[in-house]
Amino acid sequence: MMFSTGLIMAAGGTIVIAIADKALEDTGFFWLGTILKLAVPLAGMALGVYFLETNPILGWLR
After folding, report:
1. Could you tell me the pLDDT band of residue 5, with boundaries at 50, 70 and 90?
2. In contact, 14 and 22? CB cutoff 8 Å
3. How many CB atoms lie within 10 A of CB 16?
4. How far apart are CA 19 and CA 11, in angstroms?
5. What is the DSSP string of 2-61?
6. CA separation (Å) from 29 to 14, 33, 39, 53?
7. 42, 44, 60, 62: least buried by Cβ within 10 Å?
8. pLDDT for 27-46, tens place per residue?
């Protein structure tokens, strides 16, 4: 299989966020687009840290 499920979901999420940001800026909600641009990467980093801390396989490899 050329593309994994995670890759397709991440690409779809990126497209949805880009469309939502553009739609919010076009309708005049600039502040909501800015919040979206800041909140999504911060949430991704937080989930990445959570995954690294709670993954039992990575804990076993330490």
Report:
1. confident
2. no
3. 10
4. 12
5. -S-HHHHHHHHHHHHHHHHHHHHHHTT-HHHHHHHHHHHHHHHHHHHHHHHHH-HHHHHH
6. 19, 7, 16, 36
7. 62
8. 998 888 888 888 888 988 89
Residues 6+ apart with CB under 8 A from 21: 33, 36, 37
Question: pTM score, two decimals?
Answer: 0.63
Among 3-7, 35-39, 49-53, 54-58, which is the least confidently predicted range? 54-58
Residue type, 36: L
